[in-house]
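Exercise 7b. Backbone tokens:
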């Protein structure tokens, strides 16, 4: 018993005397091995004491993490010729591991309005991760066919451009995709040589029955939206993924009357490269709505290319939304969108958690066919 306690005490003292700076620089593998040795010693001590119901694994590394993102933008567009400042949403994240293989993450936004501040729940995820190959995520999350929305749907500091691509906007009355989802997802990654093969399958409420309604309190009908995705991921940050989404929608009667179920099918393809000599973000979505025996097809997507040069990343890109003007579903859920938009700009890292971004936009309006120009300068922070 004493022999077991001595190495345990020595290891505990060694860990406690390690300064924060040295601990931050310590090799993660060595730290994990020390923790496993402590667990093994504690288990042996419990067995000698006759404690048979001791937990198999003792979570020594319970941690919490808080992140926040905010930005201020100076912008001018021909649609709104007055040059003015605007505040981006203030995004807060709180993440805690409930156990070594259980995590809870919450993300909410504070958006300034003419009267007061609007609070929005962006994410609330409970993750059970027995292994990298099998994980269960339940709660409120974002559209799993879009890598951008999964990793950073809000918080301008987290993306290269000044603002979100038009396809991913979540504003009420301007929602090309059902970005907000509530339900359950099963996902995982398995090694295939030096690459990884990833998958995800979700069962969610789908799109809300009316623009601006929350999907957190139920669905418009008993049918649940089904989404499946598959992708490959390289060690160098290249990823290629695709999948499909299917739902039978119920839209409020005063917005659209239909005797037959309204179907929504979305096919998606995404190509990304992060951390390489260039930054690539490209996502494309083909949407098919079926209403009373008629089908309506629309296309939306974007592609961005950035070239990091030390602390500066100049970028160019294009946004495309071609909504079928006869589609009765998109007539409810989207504004008259721009058919195409060309963007060019830069991102400069002012500090460890501060970025200065500039962006020039040139868009073609759908109805008039006229070209709309705009420019934006943004200061974005995040930690």
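Sequence design result:
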């Amino acid at each position: 018993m004493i022999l077991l306690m001595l190495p345990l005490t020595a290891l505990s003292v060694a860990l406690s005397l390690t300064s924060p700076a040295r601990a931050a620089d310590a090799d993660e593998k060595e730290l994990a091995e020390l923790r496993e040795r402590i667990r093994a010693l504690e288990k042996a001590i419990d067995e000698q004491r006759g404690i048979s119901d001791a937990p198999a694994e003792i979570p020594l590394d319970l941690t919490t993490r808080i992140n926040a993102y905010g930005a201020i933008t100076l912008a001018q567009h021909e649609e709104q010729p007055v040059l003015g400042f605007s505040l981006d949403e203030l995004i807060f994240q709180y993440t805690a591991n409930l156990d070594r293989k259980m995590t809870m993450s919450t993300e909410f936004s504070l958006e300034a309005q003419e009267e007061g501040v609007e609070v929005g729940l962006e994410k609330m995820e409970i993750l059970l991760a027995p292994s990298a190959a099998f994980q269960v995520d339940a709660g409120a999350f974002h559209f799993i066919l879009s890598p951008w929305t999964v990793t950073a749907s809000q918080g301008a500091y987290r993306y290269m451009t000044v603002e979100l691509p038009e396809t991913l906007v979540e504003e009420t009355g301007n929602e090309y995709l059902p970005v907000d989802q509530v339900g359950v997802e099963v996902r995982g990654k398995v090694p295939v040589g030096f690459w990884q093969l990833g998958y995800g399958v979700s069962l969610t409420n789908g799109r809300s029955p009316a623009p601006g309604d929350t999907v957190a309190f139920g669905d418009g009908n008993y049918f649940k939206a089904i989404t499946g995705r598959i992708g490959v991921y390289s060690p160098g940050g290249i990823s290629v993924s695709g999948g499909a989404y299917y739902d039978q929608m119920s839209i409020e009667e005063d917005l659209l009357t239909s005797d037959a179920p309204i179907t929504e099918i979305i096919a998606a393809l995404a190509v990304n490269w992060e951390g390489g000599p260039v930054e690539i973000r490209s996502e494309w979505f083909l949407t098919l709505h079926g209403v009373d025996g008629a089908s309506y097809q629309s296309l939306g997507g974007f592609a961005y290319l950035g070239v990091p040069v030390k602390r500066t990343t100049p970028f160019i890109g294009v946004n495309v939304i071609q909504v079928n003007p006869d589609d009765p579903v998109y007539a409810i859920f989207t504004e008259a969108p721009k058919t195409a938009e060309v963007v060019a700009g830069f991102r400069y890292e002012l500090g460890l958690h501060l970025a200065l971004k500039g962006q020039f936009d040139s868009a073609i309006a759908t109805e008039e066919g006229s070209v709309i120009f705009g420019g934006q300068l943004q200061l974005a922070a995040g930690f």
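Instructor comment: The longest helix spans residues 28-49. The first strand starts at residue 64 and ends at 77.
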